[in-house]
Amino acid sequence: MLYLASEGGKGFAKRIAAIKLENNILYENMADNLQLLPVQVDFHGVDDVNAVISLIQEQDFSLIVVDTLAMTMGAGSENDGADMGQYIKNIMLLKSIFNCHVMIIHHSGKDRGKGARGHSSLRAAMDTEIEVKADGLMRFATAHKQRDLENGKKVAFSLMGVQLGFDEDGDPITSCVVKPEELSSYSSHDKRRPKGDAQIALQALEDALFKDGHKIYDAENYPQNRNVVNVNRWQDSYMLMRVGSTAQESSIKRGFRRHVKKLEEQDFIRSYDDNVWLVHD
After folding, report:
1. Spatial CB neighbours of 176, under 8 Å, sequence gap ≥ 6
2. In CATH, what number is assigned to the domain containing residue 34?
3. Is 81 in the same domain as 195?
4. 279 dihedral zone (left: phi>0; alpha: psi -120 to 50; beta)
5. Which end of the chain has the least Cβ crowding within 10 Å, N or C?
6. Residue of 69, 4, 74 lying closest to 39 (CA atoms)
7. What is the average pLDDT across 92-104?
8. 205 and 181 assigned to the same domain
9. DSSP classification of residue 116
10. Model's pTM, two decimal places?
C-alpha cells in the first residue's frame, strides 16, 4: 500500500508507533507492505502525478490512499467541473498504471446530508463511497455507494488512546489506534427515538412508504431490499398529520426540513436524488 499523507503527514509516524505498541502483528505485516509519502502533492495538474509515478513505477501496490482531496487539489477548485475532471483523470491514471484501488480521503460539506463536498462528477466517477461519522465515542463507517455490490453495509469502531512517551517538557506524547466494536451493541438507532414533531415526521414517512413506497433497481445508489418514496410525498403525509396545528404552513414546512436533516444525521433515514428510505424497519 502507498499512503500519500498530504494532510497531517508529520503526525503519521506517531500513528505507526501506536500500532507497534498495541498490535505488533499488524505492525510487522504493515512494515513490509506500507510505503508512506508524507508530502503535499498537486493532482490538479499533471507534473506531480507523473513525478509520483516515476518515483514508484517499479513497485506493486494493491491500494493507494490519497489523504486528502483538499490537500492534493493544488490551485484547483473542488467545485469546478474542469478542475475536478482533471483530478479524476489523474486518479484514474494511477489506478490504470498500478492496476490497484485508489482511496481518496475527503470531507463532507456543512450539510452532511448532501454528502461529500465538491463537483458532482467526483461521486459519479467513484465505485465505492464510505462515510465515517462520530456518535459520542463511537465511529460508524457506512457504505453509501457500491457500484457492483449492495450498499448500506455498516461497521462500528472506536479510537483507543495510546501514550507513546513524554516530550522535553514532560508532557505526554499520545496517538490512537482503531478498536473494532460490535455494531449491535452501539446502534445509534436503538439509543434514541425521535420525539415531538420529529417523531411525527418519522411516522409520516412510514405512512408514505406504506402508501407510495417502491423499489428502485439501482444498486449503485439505492438499497435493493427497501422501498423508497419521494420526499415530496413524505412532506404531503407530514402536512396531513399536522392538520389542526396553530402554526403557519410555512413554519410547518421549515420544521419538516429540519426534521429531515436531523433524522438523516441520526441514521434513521437515507436519501438520494429526492428519494428517501428507512435505514431500519
Report:
1. 15, 18, 159, 160, 161, 162
2. 3.40.50.300
3. no
4. alpha
5. C
6. 4
7. 95
8. no
9. B
10. 0.68
